[in-house]
């Protein structure tokens, strides 16, 4: 039973400057940053693979080792120069990562608990598409395996809490990404 005036849900929000993320993913720290923020599941999502290929196509150690041995490395060096100069692909990757960063921060704020949620306990994905929308997508020649539903956060449970799904909203405007999460007050598992 909730106390007087307490609601069974909470809201978390966050804002992230895209140019700040752009600096990180244009640097040598890009792989570490992406692997810290996104889970392996998230990095394997079709949209993430497509958007992040410009920064994850080569591991940093591999690119320097290969650079001195193969002529195709000229392409890798040119690719790195394009990244630091602000290619459209890198800007899109920065926008995507800023949105994911803000979304995970919003989830953490909407679910204050002890121990605190960590980056790898939150998986941002797309909710299953509406069956009617999926049918219309098929009619138009689209691919129904690509989910078209709203974003959601899977919050992985632990010894105290069960897994749960929370709705989120991610928006981008100018140099900012923002996210909001509707959190549900969790009841600890019965011991």
UniProtKB/TrEMBL annotation:
Its keywords, alphabetically, are:
Transferase
Q: Does the keyword Transferase apply?
A: yes
Recorded GO molecular functions are:
holo-[acyl-carrier-protein] synthase activity; magnesium ion binding
Residues forming the 4'-phosphopantetheinyl transferase domain are 10-135
The residue ranges flagged as biased composition, category Polar residues, are: 65-87
Q: Name one Pfam family in it.
A: ACPS
Q: Where is this region: Disordered?
A: 63-91
Its domain of life reads Eukaryota
Gene3D superfamilies (UniProt xref) = 4'-phosphopantetheinyl transferase domain
Coiled coil spans? none
What's the protein called, per UniProt? Uu.00g009140.m01.CDS01
Upper lineage is: Eukaryota, Fungi, Dikarya, Ascomycota, Pezizomycotina
């Amino acid at each position: 039973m909730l106390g007087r005036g307490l609601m069974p849900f909470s809201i978390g929000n966050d804002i992230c400057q895209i140019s700040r993320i752009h600096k990180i993913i244009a640097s040598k720290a890009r792989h570490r940053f992406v692997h810290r923020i996104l889970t392996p599941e998230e990095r394997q999502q079709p949209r993430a693979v497509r958007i992040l290929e410009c920064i994850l196509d080569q591991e940093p150690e591999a690119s320097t080792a290969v650079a001195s041995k193969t002529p195709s490395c000229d392409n890798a060096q040119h690719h790195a120069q394009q990244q630091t100069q602000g290619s459209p692909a890198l800007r899109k990757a920065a926008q995507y990562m800023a949105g994911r960063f803000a979304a995970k921060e919003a989830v953490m704020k909407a679910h204050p608990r002890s121990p605190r949620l960590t980056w790898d306990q939150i998986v941002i994905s797309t909710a299953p598409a509406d069956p009617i929308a999926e049918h219309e997508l098929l009619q138009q020649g689209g691919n129904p395996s690509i989910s078209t539903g709203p974003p959601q956060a899977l919050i992985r449970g632990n010894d105290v809490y069960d897994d749960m799904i929370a709705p989120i909203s991610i928006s981008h405007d100018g140099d900012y990404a923002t996210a909001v999460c509707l959190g549900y007050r969790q009841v600890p598992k019965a011991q």
